[in-house]
Amino acid sequence: MSTSTKFEDTTATFTGWASSGSLPLKKFTYHPRPLGPKDVEVEVTHCGICGSDVSTITGGWGPLPAPCIAGHEIVGTVVAAGPQSLRHVGELVGIGGVINSCGKCKDCTRGFQQLCTKKSFVFNDIYHDGSNIETRGGFADRIRVNSEFAYRIPPEISPAEAAPLLCAGITTYTPLKHFGAGPGKRVGVMGIGGLGHLAIQWAAAFKADEIVAISTSDSKREEAKKLGATKFVNSRNEEERKAARHSLDILLLTSNDKDTDWSELIDYVANHGTLVLLAMPEIPTIAVPPAALLMRHVSIAGSLTGGREITQEMLDFAAETGVRPWIITMPMSDPNAAVKVTMEGRPRYRVVMETEAAARLKKH
Ligand SMILES: [Zn+2]
Ligand SMILES: [Zn+2]
Prior knowledge:
By secondary structure, the chain is an alpha/beta fold. It has helices at residues 51-57, 106-109, 159-178, 196-205, 221-227, 238-243, 262-268, 291-296, 308-321, 335-343, 357-360, and strands at 14-18, 26-30, 39-48, 74-81, 92-95, 98-100, 120-121, 142-146, 151-152, 186-190, 210-215, 231-234, 248-253, 269-277, 299-302, 327-331, 350-354. It has 11 helices and 17 strands. The chain binds zinc ion (2 copies). Residues 18-353 form the Enoyl reductase (ER) domain.
C-alpha cells in the first residue's frame, strides 16, 4: 500500500506559547512531526496549567535545551487522523503527560506505559522511535500524538473540566487505586490544591473509611469538607496534628519543597502505611528519617501519572461518580496572565486556558 502524502505532511505550521527557561511565554511557530498512520491531529480547545508546567517554563527543573511549549492537560477535537487511528475526526479527546511508548516492554504490556524507557513526555522530550523529533505540548493551537494516548472524553464531562483530569486527575487516581483506597482504609491528602482537591473526591468515591485533608492553614477547612473530607487537620495546630499521628494507611503528598518536613509527614502514617510522593521537588535529594521505616514498617513510594488503560478508566469513573475539578477558565491568548494566577496560588483549584476553538465546540 502506498502511503498517502496526507499522512506525511511536514509543511503544517502550529503556533504555541514557548519558554526558553524563563517567563514570559512568547509566541512560537513550528512544524509538527509528520502525521503517522496511528496519529491524530487535535485542535486544542482547552489546556490546564499544572505545577509541572510552571517548574519547567520557569527553569525550576533546569535549563531548557530548546524553546519549550508546555501543557499536558489537553482537550481538543480531532481534525485529522491516520488510517490506523483509534480516534476519528470530530471526536473530542484528552491528552496527558505521556504521548508515546514502545508498546512491547514489560511496563507497556502491564499498563504502565508512563514507565517505559522509550516513552515520550508530551513536551520537553523527543520521540524515541529513531526520529528524535521534539515533543511540544498543549499551550498551542494544535498537537499531533499517537492516538493510543488520545483518550475518549465521556459526554457527561465538559471539555473544560476534562482538562485537569488528564494530569491532576490521573496523578491522584492512580496511587489511590494502586494502594487500595476504599472501605477499611484511612486516606490522607496533604495539600489542598489542584491535585489535592481531586484526591479527596476520588477517596470519597472509592468509599474510604476516613479522608483526612491536611493543610497549613484553616482557609480550606470548609472546602475540604465540601469535597468529601471526613476530617481536616491544620498542620500548624499541634493538637490536631497530634490527634492524627500514626493514623493514615495512605498519605498522598501533593506538593513539596526544600522546607518539607519529612519526619512530620511520616508521623501521620500508620504502621504498614505508605506515604506517596506525587510531585517532583525542585531539589535533587530529600532527607528522610529512617526510624519509622524500620520500626513501624512505613513505606515511601512515588507515583507518576497513569498508563493508558487506567487513564480511560479514570475518565469513565469521573463521568459515573461526578468527580470534577473546580476550575477557573482564562483565555490562552494571554497565557502569561493565566500562568501568573497559577503561580500566585490563587485558583481554587485549577486554571484552564481556553483557545478560540473552544467557542466553536458544539455540544459533543
Ligand atoms: Zn501535571
Ligand atoms: Zn515500553
